[in-house]
Amino acid sequence: ARKGHHPGEPPRLPVQGDGRCHGGAGEPVNAGGTSAKSAGTFEVTFVSGSTGDRQVVHATPGSGESLLDIALAAGIEIDHACGGVCACSTCHIKLKSGSNSCSESTEQEEDQLEKAPGLSGQSRLACQCIPSGKENLVVEIPVWNRNRVREGNP
After folding, report:
1. Comparing C-alpha atoms, which of 52, 51, 57, 50 is closest to residue 16?
2. Which of 14, 43, 91, 124 is a good FRET partner for 103, with 20 to 30 A between their CA atoms?
3. What is the pLDDT of residues 35-65, one digit of tens each?
């Protein structure tokens, strides 16, 4: 198990600042975990499917970073058994808003998504979804975890 993650528990989002996912001055947190102004960035709000906790992260438009890259840089755990190369479905997320500003899914991504539980019209693989930064995003991290099932954990 990864540091801070216990098998059988849903992924947890770290709490920043006042518990409302903002820095001490009421500003959203950037991918490095420090307060960030919104000039030249866009917001990605990660929502835990198990707790409803939200963490707002600022990302740089046009960086080419995937949602998985953005989440991991901010300390948000999203499983990615294949290392983020579109060879599994463990980084399945639900893109609640902002999908028009993200890269289109490829046939390879759609093939992997077919293996994901809880598939919906909002489903994407975090490793393949690259936002342009033209609009803010809301990303739900589903409760399920394929790795736990594969490893025989409840």
Report:
1. 57
2. 14
3. 344 569 999 999 999 899 999 999 999 999 9
- Which helix (H) or strand (E) element contains residue 137? strand 137-141
* CA atoms in the 13 A half-sphere facing the CB of 122: 13
Say what the pTM is: 0.71
> Whats the size of the chain, residue-wise?
154
**122: amino acid identity, one letter:** Q
Looking at per-residue confidence, does 48 or 24 come out higher? Answer: 48
d(CA 127, CA 4): 22
Residues 6+ apart with CB under 8 A from 93: 67, 78, 123, 124, 125, 126, 129, 139, 140, 141, 142
Whole-angstrom distance, CA of residue 143 vs CA of residue 53: 12
